[in-house]
Amino acid sequence: MVQDLVYRESGIRLGDHKGVLVTTRMGRRLRATGCTDIAEYLAWVQSPRGRSERAEFIDAITTNETSFFRSPEHFDWFADDYLPAIVTQSRLGQHAKRLKIWSAACSTGAEAFTLALLVQRYGMRLAGWEIEILGTDISATSVATARSGIVSPRLARTVPETHRRRLFDPQTSDRGDYTIRGELQKAVRFEVRNLLNPPSDRGFHVVFLRNVLIYFDKDSKQRVMNHITRALAPGGYLVVGQGEAIGHTEHALQRRLPFLFQKVDADASDASGASDHSGNSDHSDHSDHSDHSGATS
Asked: Per-residue confidence at 294, pLDDT binned at 50, 70, 90?
């Protein structure tokens, strides 16, 4: 079945209510490949000859929606609490001049570019810092769009007016598309990655993984979260959807805010991020939200 293959490849569990969506999107792949029916397509895509089609299959099935500055309180925390705190810690010799950020399941890059813009706005206070912003998604098509820096008029409308000049080049294309400013494009590296696979790099001070875990079942969620927590630096922060449950992990993650967790190692001081600015000591998981408009992989 289509749902079984999607689950094996991405860890995403598609419910029966997605039947119409699956049928419509599978129809596009049948026409593109010349297969006569879904059974023939599934047999082919799982064969050695159809290996290259698997990425197209995942692209067709997964949802990739995004917007700039979505859930503003998350970016307010990053810009108003986190960045000032690590700069202060650096002056006190408690934080190296290094900032490593991962926008996981970034879709076409709006979240990653938003973070790059906020870092840029912090200006000279981060002069001399080594800064790395990584955006990843399972969809090769989405990653290609992110790398192009091209933003549709619909997506550009999600950018607050106060940020548009800093984010986009002043001229639009003949079709009305916007282009992310060159310096922001250079600030972000985009890669195709499956969250079910362990990341090749670690030491991230902040990971954004928002409105993604709701698409995984318990086993897949635990697998993803173990990868994420290993990738976090001691004291690093995980930003999820508002009140999103993260399940059990191999590492200690303490909830600092309804959307924020911190990796706490008993043998490591909090040298990688800001202290708890929330005054919130509730470390329990909340139930998953039903916000299905975020990237799913």
From this structure: very low
State how far the Cα of 234 lies from the Cα of 197, in Å rounded to an integer. 21
Interior/surface letters 131-164, b for 16+ CB within 10 angstroms, e for the rest: ebbbbbbbbebbbebbbebbbeeebbeebeeeee
pTM: 0.78
Which amino acid, residue 185?
Q
In this structure, the strands spanning 130-137 and 98-104 are parallel
Residue 118 amino acid letter: L
SS3 content of the chain, % helix, strand, coil (to 5): 40, 15, 40
- Only one residue has tokens 């007016």, namely 161
CB distance 19 to 1 below 8 Å: no
Per-residue pLDDT tens for 179-202? 999 999 999 999 999 999 999 999
Q: What is the predicted pLDDT for the residue at 293? A: 35
Tokens at 63, concatenated: 């949802």
Q: Which residues contact 182 (CB under 8 A, 6 or more apart)?
A: 149, 169
- How would residue 250 be classed by pLDDT, with cut points 50, 70 and 90? low
Cα–Cα distance for residue pair 247/157, rounded to 1 Å: 35
Query: Per DSSP, which regions of the chain are E strands?
Result: 98-104, 130-137, 150-151, 178-179, 188-192, 204-208, 232-239, 253-257, 260-263
Write down the pLDDT at residue 56: 77
pLDDT score, position 21:
63
